[in-house]
Design brief:
Number of helices: 9
Helix content: 25-40%
Number of domains: 1
CATH architecture: 3-Layer(aba) Sandwich
Shape: globular
Strand order of the largest sheet: 1-2-4-3-5-6-7-8
CATH topology: Rossmann fold
Largest sheet: 8 strands, mixed
Strand content: 15-25%
CATH class: Alpha Beta
Amino acid sequence: MAYMEELTMTQEWDKTFPKSDKMEHSKVTFHNRYGITLAADLYLPKDKEGKLPAIAVCGPFGAVKEQASGLYAQTMAERGFLTIAFDPSFTGESGGEPRYMASPDINTEDFQAAVDFLSLHPRVDSERIGIIGICGWGGMALNAAALDTRVKATVASTMYDMTRVNANGYFDSENSADARHAKRQALNAQRLKDYQNGTYALGGGVVDPLPEDAPFFVKDYYDYYKTSRGYHPRSLNSNGGWNVIGCMSFMNQPILQYSNEIRSAVLVMHGEKAHSCYFSRDAYANMVKDNPWSANKELLIIPDAVHTDLYDGGGKNAIPFDRLEEFFTTNLN
C-alpha cells in the first residue's frame, strides 16, 4: 500500500450548523487510489442497531464538510442512515498537494473511495450505499454513479456541471473556440508564473467587499460564504479561493458523457429561481435520453428556491429532506 498522509483534524464541533443529539459524531479518514488521505465526519444514528444503509456526501464546490455537506449528512443520519460528509482531495482537512486543486478524475475517485470506506464499515450494509453531491459535486456524483455500480442511489442537489462552466462560461456565454483559446492562453501563462515562483497563485474566493452592481448569483454566494450564515475558516469560497489553474483540466473533460448509461436511481433537484438551474435541467434530459433505465430517474424543481437555498434551506426549509428520505429508503432497500 502506498504511503498515506497523517492528518491533523479538529476534534471540537466547528460546523456552521448546530449539533444534533439524535446521532453520534466522529472523525474518520480513508484513502483514495492515488494515496491521498481524505478526512470525513461520520454520523451514526443513536437509535439504530445492526447494519444500516449509508450515504456519502460532498460539496458544494469550494466548500468544506463543516458547511452544507455536513448538514445533509447529519440530517440524513437523524433519519436512520449512517452517513459521512468528506472533504475532497486537496481541500479542507483532507490531504493532497498542491492545495486548492480540483480534478474531474480525482474528485470522482474521491466519491468511489468513500464507497470503499462505507462498504467495509462494520455498521454498513454494503448493498445499500448512496451518494449526495451538492453544487459542483453534483456533477461529480453523477459521474461516479455512471462509473461505480456499487452506488445504488444518487442525489445531485443544486448541481453545476464543472466541465461545462469551465469550458463555456456562465450561461454558455463563452462557448466558442476563440474564447476557450484565450482562456487556455491565460491559464498556461499562469502555469509558467507558478513554476517560476515555486508557488501556486490563488484566485480569490467569493468577492469581498461585494460590489453594488454585482449580479444576483454573486450576491447569493456572498450571503452564504461571507456571512455568519455559512462562513468557515477552511472554506475556499469563504477565503482565498481555488488555485488559479486548479480547474484547468475540466475544460477538456465532459464528466457527464455516459450519464445516460446510469442504471441506478437518480434524483436531480434544483431551485426554480437558481441561476444554475439550467445545469440540472440539461443534465437530467441527457441522462434519460435513450436510457432504458429512465424510470428510476427524477428531476425535482423546488419553487422559489435560489442556488444557495439548497445549501442550508435558505431560512425557508427549501431542502426537501422528507423527499430525500423517501428516495433513499425506496432505493436502498
